[in-house]
Amino acid sequence: MKYPSLREYQLAVQNPTLAFRNDPVLRGGVARTNLLNLPTVASGGFAATFRIDCGGRQWAVRCFHRSDGTDRGLLHRYGHIDAFITGNSDLDFLVPVKYLDDGIIVNGNTFPTVRMQWVDGLPLGVWLEDWAEAPDPHRIDTVRRRIREAVAALRARDAAHGDLQHGNILVRPDDKIWLIDYDGMFLRNLAGLDSIEQGHRNYQHPDRGRHYGADLDVFAAECIDLSLAALARDPSLWKDFGGTGENLLFESTDFANPDSSQLFTRLSAMPEISASTRKFRAACLTEYSQIGAALAGRSTLPTADGHVVSTALIFAAEDAAVLRDMEGQPVTVVGTVTWTKIIETPRGAVALINLGDYKKGDFTIVAYGDVVDALHKQYPGRTRSGDRYLRDVKGLRVAINGTITLYDSDYSSNLTPQIELDRAGLLRILDDDQFRDLTENMHRTHRSTPASPRNSPPTISRATLSPPQQLPKPAPAADRTTARNAALHDLYKNKTGAARKPPQPPATTPRPVPRTRREPPTANQPYNGEPATPAARPTESWPPPPNPPPSPRMPLPQPMPQALPLQQRTQSHRRRGNGRTAFALVACATAAVGVFAAMQRDEIPAPVQFQSPSENVACQIAPDGPEAGVRCDAQEFTYIPPDPAGCADPGYGRTITLTQTSAGFVCTPDTLSAPERPILPLGETKTAGPYTCTSEDDGIACRDNRPGGHRFKITRDAYELE
Predict the structure, then answer these.
(1) What is the mean pLDDT of the chain?
(2) Does the CA dihedral 519-520-525-527 come out positive or negative?
(3) In a domain? residue 465
(4) pLDDT tens digit string along 244-298?
(5) Model pTM score
(6) Is 217 within a domain?
(7) Whole-angstrom distance, CA of residue 409 vs CA of residue 356
(8) In which domain, by residue range, is 551 found?
(9) What is the spatial distance between Cα 429 and Cα 502, in angstroms, rounded to a whole number?
(10) What's the domain count of the chain?
(11) Coiled-coil annotation: which residues (predicted)?
C-alpha cells in the first residue's frame, strides 16, 4: 500500500467531516493548528500524529505515511494490543487504542488510523531540556523510577513496548509517565509474528535486528536508566552529550565501540554509577542473547565480529530538494543562518530562522510561542520602535534534529522543508570542530558544504519572510539604456485600443522641500539640481508609464542627455557668501556636440534630514555641492554587508550612500542617528535636487532621478543596491 505524504494528511485533516467520515468519534471534530494555521503534527518512524478536538475531548490520531514494503498486520496486532491495555487497567502508563482500517479518507482513498485519547505530557527529551535549566535530582530520580517500574510491569506480563526512547516516553506534570506508540509492542498473543520495529538506534543493542520477544526492552531500559542516573549526579552531561533531539546521552557509536567512547569514559569515572557503567559496557560488546547476563554482572564473551551500527541521517541545509524527499522523516540538518525574523500574531509569536534562500524554498527552522520568547531572551534584539529580532544569530553554524515537514510559502514556487524547534536549547550552535565532524558525516550521496552568508549577502524584498539574494551588479549606463529601450519596445509594440485611466495623484501630497531660489537654467547651463526637459525630446520614464501610446508608430521614449563631469579648475575666485566654480558640460543631442560653459553657483543649500518611522534609519540628502548625494545610516541591522575591503571600523555595514556614479556601503566612524531628526511618515517622500527618498513599510528607499541613476533601499533586515 502506498500511503499519502505527510503534507497530504495535513491538508486532509483540515476538514475532519470529510477526512474522518468513517470514524463517528472524530468526524465532528476540529484539528488543532499552529500559529501558521496548519494542523500540528508529530511524526517519527512510520506514522504522523494529529490532535483532533471533538465534543470536549481530545484525541490523538496516528496516520501512517511510510511503509517498509511488508505486511505489518496492524489490524491484527492492534486488536490484541487494545485488548491487552483494556484488560490490564492497572498499567496506568498505557493508553487504550482503537485501530480503524479505513479511519481516514485522503484524495478519495481510505487509509488506516490508530486513535487514542490525547494525554498531557512532555516527551522525555524535551522534559530534560527544561529540567536542565534548573536541575533537581529528586525529580529526575522520580521519573527514572517510574520508567523502571513500567518496564518491570510489562515484563511481568510477558510484554514489551519495543521502542523505548525519548520520544515515546511522556512525562506528566506530576512526574508520572505515559508510554505511547505501540507499533512494535510484543505480547504473548503476538509471539508467532515477526518484528515490525527495530527501535531507535540510539537506544537499541547493535544486534537487535529482527529479534521479537519479551526481552525487547532490556537494553533500552538500561540505557535510559543509566543516562538519567548520570544526569542526576552531573547535569553538565546534558550540555556535553545530550540536547540533540536524537538521544539522552548515548549514541549508537558508543554501543559499537565503548572503549573509544568519551561518554563511557566520563561515566566510568563517577563512583556512584561506575559499576552500572561497566556492566552496560559489557552488554554493548556481547551478543544480543547475552544482554541480560551482562547486566546482571555475569561473565559474557564479546561478539567475535564486532558491531555495525546505523548513524543519523545528516544533510546540508542547502540540499533542499533532498530534504523535500525526506518529508516525515527524522533527520539532522546542518547549515549557516542567513536570516531571521520574529512575526507577532494575535495567537503568539513565530520565529523563522532561514538557512538558505527563501525564494528557492531552502530549509527553514520555525519556532512558536514560548520557544520564541526563550530564543529572544538568549539573543535579545529590539528596534527603536520596539520590534523584537534575534540579535547575533545570522552567520552562526547550527544543527537541528527533527521531522521534516513541508510548507507552501507565498514567496517560492518550491515547497519549503522545515523543522519545528521544540525548545530553544535544542538549536545546537556549532564550533569549527563540531561543524567539521557533522559535515564529514553527511549523507554521502548528497553531501554539500553550507554556503557562507557573506558570499551571498541578503537583500530586500518588499514583503518577505526572509531576504532574497543580492541583485546582480548593474550594467554600465549605456547598457542599461539599451536594455530599457528594448523593454519599452517589447511593452508597446502592436498595442492599440483605448487609453487606460491616467494615474491618480497620491492621497497625501509630499511635503515641499525648502530650497534656495534659483533662476531657470538656460539652454547652455549644466544640470544644477532642478529638473529640466531638453527641447523637442521626450523624457524617459522608468518603469514605463501606465498609459500606452495612442499608436504603435509613436516613437519610443529616449533617455535625457547626460552631463559628463570634467575636472574642476584648480583656481577659484572667492567672494563673501558664495563661490565660483567652473564646470564643463558635454551635451548630447542627435549628434554628439560638446559645449563648454561656466556657471555662477548659488549658495549650497543645507542637506535635507529625516528618519524612518521606526527611527532605525536616519538619512540626509545633499542636493548639490561636493557632498551631493544621499546617505542613510541603520542604527540596528541584521543583514550581512559585502566584504569591507580593508575597513576596520566595527560599525561597518550601517552606512549606505548614493551618488551620481554609484550606490554602496562606505566606511565611516560617525553616524547620522539622532532622535531629534524629523520623521518621514510612511508613504511620503523627500526630494532634493535629483534625489528622492520614500518612506516604505520596512525602511527607506532612495533613487537618483537622472537617466541611468542608481538606487538603494535599506531596512533593519536587508538591503538592495542597483
Answers:
(1) 78
(2) positive
(3) no
(4) 889 999 999 999 999 999 999 999 999 999 999 999 999 999 999 999 999 999 9
(5) 0.60
(6) yes
(7) 14
(8) 479-494+522-528+535-568+579-594
(9) 55
(10) 5
(11) none
